[in-house]
Amino acid sequence: MKVSSVLHCQRCAPRQRFLLTAFLLTYWHLSTSSQVSIELVPPQVVEGEDVLFLVHKLPENIMSLCWFKGRTFINCGILMYAKNTRVSVMGPMYSSRETLYGNGSLLIHNVSQKDIGFYTLRALNSHGDTVSTSTFLHVNLFLWNCGRLVASAQPSIETLPPIVPDGKDVFVQVRNLPENILGFAWFRGMTQVRKQLIARYIIDEKASFSFGPAYSGRERLYTDGSLLIKNVTQKDAGLYTLGILGTDMKSEEGHVEIQVESLVLKCCNSLTPAKFIVESVPRYAVEGGSILLVVHNLPEGLRSFSWYYSIYTVPAFKIVDYHVIRNITTWSDAYRGRGMVYASGSLLLQDVTEEDARMYTLEILNINNKVERGHVQFYVNKMVTEPFIRITNTTVNARRSVTFSCVSPDIGLSFRWFFNNHNLQPTDRIKLSPSKCGVRIDDVRIEDAGEYECLVMNRAGIGVGSHPVRWP
Ligand SMILES: *[C@@H]1O[C@H](CO)[C@@H](O)[C@H](O)[C@H]1NC(C)=O
Ligand SMILES: *[C@@H]1O[C@H](CO)[C@@H](O)[C@H](O)[C@H]1NC(C)=O
Ligand SMILES: *[C@@H]1O[C@H](CO)[C@@H](O)[C@H](O)[C@H]1NC(C)=O
Ligand SMILES: *[C@@H]1O[C@H](CO)[C@@H](O)[C@H](O)[C@H]1NC(C)=O
Ligand SMILES: *[C@@H]1O[C@H](CO)[C@@H](O)[C@H](O)[C@H]1NC(C)=O
C-alpha cells in the first residue's frame, strides 16, 4: 500500500509529491515505533523559533551518523559525526544554524519557511549496518490557539440526514477538526489507501483541493473538513474515513457510515436484498438517558449477531453476542446490566454518558456463514457555555496582524463570527481557522476597526454568543 502510493505519485508536481508523501510518512512512523524515531521539540514550530529533532532508540553501537535534508542519501548533507574521532563534518546544506549532538539529536536555530521539508538521520553501526529514519518539518507562519488543542478529543463526524433516501444528497458534517493542520483527505472504506482517495485539501500558500481515484464527480469538499455527496445510491453506502495531518506531523482519523435507504426495497420485489440499516433513537441523547439502536431490514435466516462499540469487530470491543437459533445472549462484563438486546437485532443502552457517544457496529452471521456489518453513531448533547473572545496582536516586518480567538470549553461546536453585526466574510487578508474558532486579519487597516462577536452552536442547534468586543 505505502510503496505503491509513493510510486503512483511520481508523476505529480514536486510539491504535491512532497505533501502526499507526508500524509503517508506518518503511518510509517506509527508502524515502526519500536525502532529509531524522531520527535520534534516543540511539536509545532513557528518561524524564528529553534527546533530540536530528538532521536529516540538509537542503537548503542553507532560508529557514525549523518543528517541530511530530503529522503534520498545522495543529496543535501547537513552534518556528519564520527563517534570514535568525535569529529563533525559539515555538508553542503549546513547553514551555521545547526548543532549536532553526540546522541544523534539535531538542533536548528531560527527556522524559516525555507527549512520546510524532510530530514533524514542515517546511522552506521559497528557491523556496517545502517539504520535510517525521516521526519517532515513544517514551519508555521503562526499558530491558531483556539478550538481543539486537546489531542485526546476526536473529530466529530455526522451525516445529515442520518439515513439518506436513494437519489438524495447527504452532507457529512465535521466538527472539532484540529486547528493547526497541513491538510485532510476523505477516503472510501475503512483505511487510507490511495486508490480509495476521494479528495484532499492541502493548506499551503494557495490552499487547494484535489481529487483522487474514488472521486465520482458528485462530491464536494469544504475547508472545515465537511463533505457533500450528491444524488447518493446504494453504491455510496458504507464506511468513509477522514484522515487529518497536523502541522506537528501527527495524524488522526475519523469514520462515518453513510446509510442509504433503498426505494427498491420498499416494494419488496428486489432480488438482491438491500443492506440492513441501523438507526439511533434518539440521535442526540441526554446524559443519563437511554438510546435504542434500531435495526431495519435485518435479513432472515441468521445464525447469530454481535454488537461492538467500535468500527473494529474484535473481542476487546464486544458488547453482546446473541445466538439467534439457540436464543442465548452473552454480555461482556462492562455492559452486563446496562442494556437489552432484541431478536430484531436492536440494542438498548441505558444511562449513557459522553464516553458512549461513538461508533457502534452490528455484525451479523447468516446460516451460510456470510458476515455483514452495519455502523451507527449517536451523540450526547451538553449545555453550551458562553464563549469569550481573546485578542492577540503581532507585528512582523512592520506589518500588523490581529487574531481573534473564540474560546469555549465545550467540544463539537460550530462557530460563526460577526463584525459590526454582520456575518464576517473571509478575504485574502481575513482568514478563518479550519473549524472557524479563529479569525486572523493580516496587514490591519482602519476599516477593520469595529465590534467583533462570535457565536458557538452545538449539534442540536442551540447557540450562545460571546460578549461583543471593540477593536482596537
Ligand atoms: C541529546 O542531547 C540533547 C542536547 O544535549 C538533549 O537535549 C536531548 O535530550 C538528548 N536526547 C536524548 C534522547 O537523550
Ligand atoms: C532569523 O532568521 C531571519 C531570516 O530568516 C533573520 O532575518 C533574523 O535576523 C534571524 N534572527 C536571529 C535572531 O538570528
Ligand atoms: C441521480 O443518479 C441517477 C443514476 O445514478 C440518474 O439517473 C439521475 O439523473 C441523477 N439525478 C440527478 C438529479 O442528478
Ligand atoms: C428467549 O429466551 C428468553 C429468556 O432467556 C425468553 O424470555 C424468550 O421468550 C425467548 N425467545 C424466544 C424467541 O424463544
Ligand atoms: C492590540 O492593538 C491595538 C491597536 O494597536 C491596541 O489598542 C490593543 O490594546 C492591543 N491589544 C492587546 C491585547 O494587546
Automatic annotation (TrEMBL):
Gene Ontology cellular-component annotations: cell surface; plasma membrane
Pfam families: I-set (PF07679), V-set (PF07686)
Swiss-Prot/TrEMBL keywords: Glycoprotein, Immunoglobulin domain, Signal
Alphabetical list of PANTHER family matching this protein: CARCINOEMBRYONIC ANTIGEN-RELATED CELL ADHESION MOLECULE 1 (PTHR44427:SF1), CARCINOEMBRYONIC ANTIGEN-RELATED CELL ADHESION MOLECULE 19 (PTHR44427)
Protein name per Swiss-Prot or TrEMBL: Pregnancy-specific glycoprotein 22-like
GO molecular function: protein tyrosine kinase binding
Secretion signal, residue range per the UniProt entry: 1-33
Source organism: Mus caroli
Record SMART domains: IG, IGc2
Domain of life, per lineage: Eukaryota
Signal in keyword set: yes
GO BP of this protein: regulation of immune system process; signal transduction
Stretches assigned to the Ig-like domain: 387-470
Family: Belongs to the immunoglobulin superfamily. CEA family.
